[in-house]
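Colleagues,

For the teaching module next term, I've prepared a clean inverse folding example: a structure given as tokens, and then the sequence designed for it. I'd like students to try predicting residues themselves before seeing the answer, so please don't circulate the second half yet.
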């Protein structure tokens, strides 16, 4: 049956990089038997411009009907003064919550061709291939009570609340063990159980779920130590599972181990495996419209979409191989360029990946 993909270009470089992803999907459709139909809609600042809100009703409806959503990025300085509820990022948070996308998968892979782009020594990061699984719909970003209030003595105070119930913890823990089973069978659960009660419950539930996955070696680490270990010896990890805010921070740190934020895809899945796929970077307003943005993170997001939501593992592999071949050929967008390589723009990079799909 034809699968539906909703394409949300968003803001800044979003439309430029998503155009390359659409080109790739159309090539897979035309030449490699991928049975999908694409629809496009506005979100973020583009949603605000089109309909006065960052997540227009029509966009949400299409997202609910889609088998997978491909997002570019949202945000831009022209929207920074809008009311909180109208900010582009609210569109993203709204989509995650409405589609119940609780599991955020962020691989951090260092391509051997880009080893010199990492700030760390090659012996520390060479061959790095870790997966960070971040819980995406709970914790401090959604917990109540929240807000800025005025105390009786007139002093203002800001409040956010980290809340997780045991069902939410169990759900993400199971995803973590499932992913570990498909990889190196090692799962590290990151928490702050020495200080936070919510982390104590987290740890207790993760240990309970571990009984169902005797083949997976489970370890626990405090988040401050995990941040240090990611930079000191990142290859010790296989899969990391953690709560929303810890995952937000650790996955950005892991991203930088690989050299360029323009290389890393992500997937956010619900319990039925439907998902939203997006590069981990933002809308890069500083380079928007110049045709220099790196589209590879978005193309690799298409690969994750093929693998996790469309169950087209062979085509996903074909895309991964094509990206690797293009890097082998020495093609680089400016963010990953070094002197011995050929500098290309967004469109040329997309074209090269499509051409490299052929055997
Ligand atoms: P950013 O990721 O947009 O940019 C950080 C730096 O990385 C910039 O110098 C940018 O030019 C560069 N960069 C990012 N993606 C690149 C690519 N594909 N190719 C080449 N270089 C790339 O982060 P920021 O500057 O902190 O945020 C800009 C806007 O994006 C803000 O409005 C922010 O709220 C938003 N944002 C959106 C998302 C999202 O949509 N998921 C995520 C993060 C930030």
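(Answer key — instructors only)
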């Amino acid at each position: 049956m034809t699968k539906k993909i909703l394409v949300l270009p968003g803001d800044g470089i979003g439309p430029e990089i998503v155009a390359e992803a659409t080109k790739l999907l159309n090539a897979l459709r035309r030449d490699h038997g991928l049975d999908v139909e694409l629809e496009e809609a506005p979100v973020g600042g583009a949603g605000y411009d089109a309909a006065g809100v960052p997540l227009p009703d029509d966009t949400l409806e299409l997202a609910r009907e889609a088998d997978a959503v491909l997002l570019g990025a949202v945000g831009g300085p022209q929207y920074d003064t809008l009311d909180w509820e109208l900010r582009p990022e609210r569109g993203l948070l709204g989509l995650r919550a409405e589609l119940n996308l609780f599991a955020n998968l962020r691989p951090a892979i260092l391509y051997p061709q880009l080893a010199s782009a990492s700030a760390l020594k090659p012996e520390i990061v060479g061959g790095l291939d870790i997966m960070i699984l971040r819980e995406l719909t709970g914790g401090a970003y959604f917990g109540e009570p929240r807000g800025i209030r005025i105390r009786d003595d007139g002093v203002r105070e800001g409040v956010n609340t980290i809340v997780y119930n045991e069902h939410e913890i169990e759900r993400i823990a199971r995803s973590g063990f499932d992913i570990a089973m498909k990889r190196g069978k090692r799962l590290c659960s990151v928490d702050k159980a020495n200080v936070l009660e919510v982390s104590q419950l987290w740890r207790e539930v993760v240990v309970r779920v571990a009984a169902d996955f005797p083949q997976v070696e489970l370890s626990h680490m405090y988040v401050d130590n995990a941040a240090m270990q990611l930079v000191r010896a990142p290859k010790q990890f296989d899969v990391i599972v953690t709560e929303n805010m810890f995952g937000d921070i650790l996955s950005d740190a892991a991203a930088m181990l690989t050299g360029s934020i323009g290389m890393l895809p992500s997937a956010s899945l619900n319990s039925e495996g439907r998902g939203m796929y997006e590069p981990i970077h933002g809308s890069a307003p500083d380079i928007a419209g110049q045709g220099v943005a790196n589209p590879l993170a978005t193309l690799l997001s298409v690969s994750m979409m093929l693998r996790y939501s469309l169950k087209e593992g062979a085509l996903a592999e074909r895309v991964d191989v094509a990206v690797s071949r293009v890097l082998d050929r020495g093609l680089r967008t400016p963010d990953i360029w070094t002197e011995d390589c050929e500098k290309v723009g967004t469109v040329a990079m997309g074209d090269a990946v499509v051409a490299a799909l052929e055997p």
